From TrEMBL:
Native source species: Clostridium fessum
Record bears the keyword DNA repair: no
Name of the protein in question: SrtB family sortase
Gene Ontology MF term list: hydrolase activity
Region span, Disordered: 49-72
Compositionally skewed regions (Polar residues) per UniProt: 56-67
Transmembrane segments: 21-39
Keywords tagged on the record: Membrane, Transmembrane, Transmembrane helix
Domain of life: Bacteria
CDD domains attached to this UniProt entry: Sortase_B
Length: 259
């Protein structure tokens, strides 16, 4: 009798263990289902929040620039000229060509020699600093503004101007931006890139009137097989110049006009 009770007790404990395992499996199943439902709900919430954020950012961009994210060609940005001028009072602008490494401050002084070998900090630097021709108006308001920068092996300064002589690369990088301390930004359209000599005529900055600009541009860009001459009268021409090595004293020159 006692042995039977013991055996019965053993069977009862075994039955209780099986029931407990069944309950545990069922609870685990419910937990997994609950987690999946919760995760799906969280995912929906995150997606809804992301959509709201995206719409909000688009509205902010539209408020700032008058354009939506989809048609804004360049984010709103302005160099801190107060800081730049504290570092160097000769800073007069900033040049940026999206898709290239050309993203540089521009200086100007009374000659075209100093910044060939002086950095923005005023110390000797073989890379020099990008500078505006001393005969060009500092706000690039005259007919022809000429900018110079070294062709460095590390790709800095104006080195990537050389790549613009490749038609495919040129067609993909037709826009440049000039920023000025007064907060203005000029959008430029690149019209030609070529190898040329260093003839003095390429430094011409004085013209009687706008009527002289178109024939001058046609002459200066004659060597470019994929040039795009402007259809309308030009108010400003911009030249970006760096060293080239096709022949003695060669230059790579990229020409641009206001877009």
């Amino acid at each position: 009798m006692n042995r039977w009770k013991e055996n019965l007790g053993t069977k009862k404990r075994t039955g209780d263990g099986a029931a407990r395992w069944a309950r545990r499996i069922f609870c685990a199943f419910l937990i997994v289902i609950g987690c999946l439902v919760l995760a799906d709900g969280v995912g929906d919430a995150v997606r809804r929040a992301e959509n709201r954020d995206s719409q909000s950012e688009g509205n902010v961009e539209q408020n700032l620039s008058g354009k939506s994210d989809s048609d804004a060609s360049e984010p709103i940005w302005q160099p801190d000229f107060a800081v730049l001028k504290c570092q160097n009072a000769d800073v007069i602008a900033w040049i940026r060509i999206p898709g290239t490494h050309i993203d540089e401050p521009i200086v100007q002084t009374s000659d075209n020699e100093s910044y060939r070998s002086i950095g923005l900090d005023g110390k000797p630097d073989p890379a020099g600093t990008v500078f505006l021709d001393c005969e060009s108006a500092p706000d690039a308001s005259d007919f022809h503004s000429i900018f110079y920068g070294h062709h460095m092996k590390d790709g800095s300064r104006f080195s990537e101007l050389v790549r613009l002589k490749d038609e495919d690369f040129f067609q993909k990088h037709r826009t440049a931006y000039l920023y000025f301390p007064d907060g203005k930004r000029r959008t430029l359209r690149l019209i030609a890139a070529l190898t040329a000599g260093s003839q003095g005529e390429r430094r011409r900055t004085e013209f009687a009137d706008r009527s002289e600009m178109h024939p001058y541009i046609e002459e200066m860009t004659e060597g470019c097989r994929f040039r795009e001459l402007p259809d309308e009268e030009v108010s400003h021409l911009y030249s970006f110049v760096t060293c080239s090595y096709e022949f003695a004293d060669a230059r790579t020159i990229v020409y641009a006009v206001d877009e």
